[in-house]
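Methods — Computational structure assignment.
A single polypeptide chain was analysed. Its primary sequence is given first, followed by the predicted tertiary structure written as structure tokens.
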Amino acid sequence: MNKSVLGIDIGTTAIKMILLSILDEGHTKIEREMSFPHDLVSLHPGWAEEDPFIWKEHLISMLSSLSKEADLSTLEAISVTGMTPALLLLDENGKPLRPAILQNDMRTASEIAYLKSALEKDSSYFNATGSHVNSQHIAPRMLYLYKHERTLFSKVRHICGSYDYAANILTGNVRIEENWALESGLFTLKGDIIKAVLELSHMDESWLPEVASSRDLVGRVSREVAMATGIREGIAVYAGTADHVASSYASGAKEDGSLVLKLGGAGDILLSSSRLVTDDRLFIDYSPSFFAPYLINGCTAASGSLLKWFVREFGGSYSDLDKDAEQIAAGSDGIVILPYVLGEKTPVFDPDAKGVIYGLLLNHTKAHIYRAMMEAVAYAFRHHVDIFKEIGIEMRKVFITNGGSTSPLWRQIMADVLKSEVAYIKHNPGSSLGAAFIAGEAHGLIKPEAIDDFLSQKIISYPNPDNYSVYDRRYEVYRELYPRLKDLERL
């Protein structure tokens, strides 16, 4: 009888599940895919929160539905993934004390400035963590909460991330996965807690659960969850990994020099590396790959969310806007956009950065602006690629994934701006599939090469040399806009 594994993704816009069957000779097949949407809440400018009680409600409901629709008697293992590094405060019973603060929350500019002044008088903090204090770190958010919601601190027993919380729901155990730990800014690259950071942000060391690697067993499905959902008690639950890491793993980032472009609400760019390289303009993550255990990466805060905003405010459908924008020449007839509508993460690390539409004239149409937004994200990715080259890591293969990658136009723009072939993997669900594979590998049911089953159906976008020169010029404008305008942000 074939066995099966389950991958669960706590995403920014939905919870997703993949039930993966393991066939003869180690091959795999997707048996079920499920998705249940939830909403991001932004009560004030720059805020990004979600209700973890809704996550739990939807997770239990989805597992209950899955147990009715599929034969789960063969389910052997579960792994989790999700947005990173979200922040949840849990009480002694494992219940969230407030909404989760998401990774794209930008409320902590003053707290970042304070922590930078205290921690970055020399290069020791960067050398220890591989990063500077930034908006994704946990300490600025905890310091903000200490200022504004201090009464919660007496009730906190654990802090964790989105997918750590999902594992807690399933097992009752609390762990934090190593990528959450690394991106939190609370730990060194060696895995040691930085006590000075805890003191500055009024955190207790006891609040930090044990750190687990992606294939570590967190626990087993509890009796309570089994009774509520119909799935079997005692199924193994593994720690999993960050969503962008899981997505890159499912998309082919297994070898040195494999580059993955992830066009979700935010835009992630991840380069597999066999060696650890730090740069103060980039992030670092641990990869599940046995061949390239590091991911040198970055994130532009707004990618698909920028296009979503445009459609919501100005109307039209994505498919119709794609068709119209395809008729516009490369370079959008002079329009260059800075996509910093949520501030910006890498490589500028400026939560106060603003979106800009430059070069707008009366002859321009809605389609010009829409195409220029796609090009802006491509320029943001090229900025990262330039840094990768500077630090001596060359890209060899380029893959593209997530919702925005379904657009042939956006894929072609990426190929032209990066001057590289770009491979789109058809029918690849991304993060939840990566989590399912981690579950299968950790449980000894499948080997890493089994993921190649999902990489065979590719659509290749070939770069058009006729567009190189115009994109080179527009990219130069893109790179100049931010440094010339950033002083105006403070006026």
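Note: The longest strand covers residues 28-37.
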